[in-house]
Amino acid sequence: MHILLIAATPFEIQPTIDALKAVAQKEAPAAILIGGVGGISTTWSLMRQIGRDRPDLIIQAGIAGSLIDRKPGTVFVIDEEELADLGVWEEGGFRSLFDLRLAGANEFPFSNGRLTNPYPGLLELTGLEHARGMTVNEITTDVRRIARFQQNTKAVVESMEGGPLHYVCLRENIPFLQIRSISNVIGTRDKTKWDIPLAITRLNEELGALIRRLGSTAASIFESSNH
Q: Which one of 70, 118, 135, 154 is most buried, by most CB atoms within 10 A?
């Protein structure tokens, strides 16, 4: 099984990188791709790597903010993503790409306006709590936008790269997982309330356990309920 592990920055998955280097003389269980911060860099990096060496599975891992009150170090697997700021803010509100009728909410790869992971076996294999994610192009701090996201998206996790992963993998028909560890509750950037070291530790604990499980699991986990 050829697994590609992608993260926005190396420090988020450094413990896993170190562990993989330790077995590099043997057959490494996963290849590493640092895709960069944000959707544009992630999309380019993924498509370039897929074109060079198409993987059987892509795992995206990283730390993230939470839209609900969850403790730092809580780790989720993301079952669906929303491109939360793709649209227009006007007249005190937000209209999405679908509200503007620039795309259909059920036009592939979207389902009800979201990018859904169609591999239930993979999601369950993680043993993690499922959560809805939202992708934005800036870290959200404005209380009005936070309230809008909480009410309209019902998302739990905010990232800047989750949506591109889901979009590319659905388009390319490649099984995928997105694993996110909470470092903070979104809002005012009071870093005294953040715990990035704990988030990274817990992320890599779960990531290492998942990679070990995948190494001993039959290919049937890749069966999709939608394909």
A: 135
